[in-house]
From TrEMBL:
Residues 74-314 form the AB hydrolase-1 domain. InterPro entries: AB_hydrolase_1 (IPR000073), AB_hydrolase_fold (IPR029058). The lineage of its organism: Eukaryota, Viridiplantae, Streptophyta, Embryophyta, Tracheophyta. GO terms for biological process: lipid homeostasis; phosphatidic acid biosynthetic process. Pfam families: Abhydrolase_6. GO terms for molecular function: carboxylic ester hydrolase activity; lysophosphatidic acid acyltransferase activity. This is AB hydrolase-1 domain-containing protein.
Length: 333
């Protein structure tokens, strides 16, 4: 385990205070749970946010490299088999250089976060509440929430809870906007699975083997086909394969219970600007799933050419980042 992974919480707090009433855990950061370390890049710090349950949630932070006072902070939420590190690799340096404070969360049971006393990491509701608690305690102004895959579904639930009544408005802090990246649609993944079974049975078998049976963890070719473009070099795929294998110590959801609770409640007259972003080479979320999410929010989807499901890690990661940056610039006008 490398020393570079170890970041002192007190040093982070002094250099980059999050807010005056921070609940930052004093838990030793050198005690890591992932067997494969992710070395933070220059300007990045790791800290632990203590949830009301007493469990600690890993947060990777990179502050903006140029001072733009009115730009909203960005809070990133990963999907299954990933953790906060997936945003820190390329998109954190990109967005911090553009004037944005960046925070990436590892949901419970993922990355370096604590593991709850259950068979799964949580529910749609508990994950959304953990995100909301972090924003309430640690983020000074309404952020833009960005979610990938199942992280996008968590954000959709968060959005559905905004302002529905006075109590929930306090539980779920206001947002400046939201970006759904290759997101699972509001109805969940069951529609995706059935479409694949009828139209692409071989692809359906591969997806099931890769994700449900975790075949991507042992097969380099299946890992590449599931998450990345064909052009990504094998040694890079191997590194990400090892990180994804270590990132999830327990399932993010009980999928049967999750699908029984869907679709996400509708949000008529949604008060947020929302960007629905997809990838034309996505092996998991198909074009119909992308259109479903966009229609749900009354926006036009943006499909990025030449990238796969893990848009933030793929060989052409900058394509999606530039689309988001352009959307953010419009948000700031």
């Amino acid at each position: 385990m490398t020393v570079a992974m170890s970041v002192c919480v007190s040093s982070f707090y002094n250099r980059f205070p999050i807010c005056s009433n921070s609940k930052v855990s004093s838990k030793p950061v050198a005690v890591l749970k992932m067997g494969v370390p992710y070395d933070l890049k220059q300007g990045q710090c790791r800290v632990f946010h203590q949830l009301p349950s007493g469990l600690n949630m890993e947060v990777i932070v990179q502050k903006k490299r140029r001072n733009v006072e009115d730009y909203p902070p960005l809070v990133f939420v990963h999907g299954s088999y990933h953790a906060a590190w997936c945003w820190a690799e390329h998109w954190f340096p990109f967005f911090s250089a553009s004037g944005y404070d960046c925070y990436a969360l590892s949901l419970l049971g993922q990355g370096e976060s604590d593991v709850p006393a259950d068979s799964v990491a949580g529910t749609l509701q508990t994950h959304a509440r953990d995100v909301a608690d972090f924003i309430h305690q640690q983020v000074r102004s309404p952020p833009v929430l960005l979610g990938h895959s199942f992280g996008g579904l968590i954000i959709q639930y968060y959005i559905s809870s905004l302002g529905s009544n006075g109590l929930k408005e306090n539980l779920y802090p206001k947002l400046r906007g939201a970006v759904l990246v290759c997101s699972v649609p509001p109805s969940g993944n069951s529609g995706l699975v059935w479409r694949y079974l009828f139209s692409k049975p071989i692809a359906a078998f591969k997806v099931t083997r890769s994700l449900a049976a975790r075949g991507f963890q042992s097969s380099l070719s299946l890992c590449k086909e599931t998450f990345f473009s064909d052009t990504m070099e094998d040694h890079v795929v191997k590194r990400y394969q090892e990180l994804t294998k270590e990132s999830s110590r327990m399932p993010l959801f009980d999928l049967r219970k999750l699908n029984a609770s869907l679709p996400v409640p509708s949000t008529p007259n949604c008060p947020l600007d929302i960007l629905v972003l997809g990838a034309n080479n996505d092996f998991i979320v198909d074009a119909e799933g992308l259109r479903e999410t966009a229609k749900f929010y009354g926006v036009s989807p943006v499909c990025v050419e030449g990238v796969a499901h893990d848009m933030m890690l793929d060989t052409s990661w900058e394509k999606g980042a530039e689309v988001i940056l352009s959307w953010l610039n419009g948000l700031n006008k």
